[in-house]
Design goal:
alpha+beta, 5-stranded antiparallel β-sheet, 4-stranded antiparallel β-sheet
């Protein structure tokens, strides 16, 4: 399974293509739209969310609510395109009326301009914008639909914004439902309140905040991924998927970085056996992955997101044309997008887990995969 996205932040729209997806999987525009709405929510979002009401248009690969096995084409039109046509149109000589020449520290502006030899930073920032993640969320909705048929659910929540965080290891049984009710996707009401207060303080100062979100995959069978080659290790693929989300600067699985400070006896999970359950771990410090392969426990991943680099009180920069010191450009932006990033993280993880699932249980149709999966589950129970 493979996928591509295309489109710019203020272009006509965002295009997603998903190839290698089996037939017979129920996927609807309504289901995809629900995921897109989750991405647009969250306290700390900017004015763009008041303009865009993302709705997907299914262009190919789905008929009467079921996938066909052919490539899936999805389009998310940008409503803001109409507002920007005049401002983005070129002056004589081919330069945009809204040319941007003051790169923002922490953004792709300057590095991208040098790489692609562009003098107008808008040629870079329009694609490097996190607006692209809407296309990934649409693809992730398809992956989630596939996984859910086999009892695999991907859930996300926010653990930290700024200096406010959940207690280490705190995960109530109903955390996913409680996270959905929180304006910052945090299951703890007290922490949510303090997070929103800090976001509002940052807004008044013209600053931004980052944080940490957690993704869990429930019902994941043992055997996804492999130890035999680096690019088949599922932990590596998942880490890369999360790191590909704009502004993500760190990823950990299970105990993660804390494992570096603990002895092996407090890091590795003992192995147990029960005739009903089969092999199991009474703890899950590994986060559901050992040797690049899922071990049957929950997948647990966390990603650290830096503060958004567009500041209303911009940092020092240099103008590309004059080479003189100046302040960085200011673009319409969010104060905090960690809640939205957690939804994008769900999509990124769902896509990689679904790809690994299809690698393992292969097939062009739902029926073929169901037969392969049932046979594997019997072999695991009898192992």
């Amino acid at each position: 399974m493979r996928w591509l996205t295309a489109g710019e932040s203020h272009g006509r729209g965002l295009l997603s293509i998903l190839e290698g997806f089996p037939s017979g999987i129920p996927v609807s525009a309504t289901g995809i739209d629900a995921e897109l709405a989750r991405r647009q929510a969250g306290f700390g979002r900017g004015g763009r969310m008041k303009i865009e009401k993302d709705r997907v248009q299914i262009l190919a690969g789905i008929r009467h609510g079921f996938t066909l096995g052919s490539p899936i084409g999805l389009l998310i039109p940008n409503r803001d395109w109409d507002n920007w046509q005049e401002e983005m149109s070129p002056e004589p000589g081919g330069v945009s009326k809204r040319v941007v020449t003051r790169p923002r520290p922490g953004h792709a502006d300057l590095a991208g301009a040098m790489k692609y030899a562009r003098r107008d930073l808008r040629d870079i920032l329009e694609r490097s914008s996190a607006r692209e993640t809407a296309a990934k969320v649409a693809l992730g909705a398809c992956a989630k639909a596939l996984l859910l048929l086999f009892g695999i659910e991907v859930q996300g929540m926010v653990r930290q914004i700024g200096e406010v965080r959940l207690a280490t290891g705190e995960s109530p049984d109903d955390w996913a439902a409680r996270a959905e009710e929180s304006p910052v996707r945090c299951p703890d009401l007290d922490a949510s309140s303090r997070m929103t207060a800090d976001i509002e303080t940052a807004r008044t100062k013209g600053d931004t905040l980052g944080g940490v979100f957690e993704i869990r995959v429930l019902g994941c069978p043992p055997g996804l991924g492999s130890h035999v080659q680096a690019d088949r290790r599922l932990d590596g693929r998942l880490a890369a998927a999360l790191m590909s989300i704009p502004a993500i600067k760190g990823v950990e699985i299970g105990l993660g970085f804390a494992a570096a400070a603990a002895p092996g006896s407090l890091v590795h999970d003992p192995i147990g056996y029960d005739p009903q359950r089969g092999f199991f771990r009474p703890s899950n410090r590994a986060g559901g992955v050992e040797g690049g392969i899922t071990n049957g426990e929950e997948l647990v991943l966390r990603a650290a997101m830096k503060p958004i680099p567009t500041l209303m009180h911009p940092l020092p920069s240099v103008d590309l044309q004059s080479k003189e010191p100046d302040r960085a450009a200011v673009e319409r932006s969010d104060v905090c997008a960690v809640p939205a990033a957690s939804v994008v993280g769900e999509a990124a993880v769902a896509l990689e887990v679904a790809a690994a699932f299809l690698d393992k249980f292969g097939g062009d149709s739902r029926e073929e995969i169901e037969a392969n999966y049932a046979a594997y589950r019997r072999s695991v129970r009898n192992f």
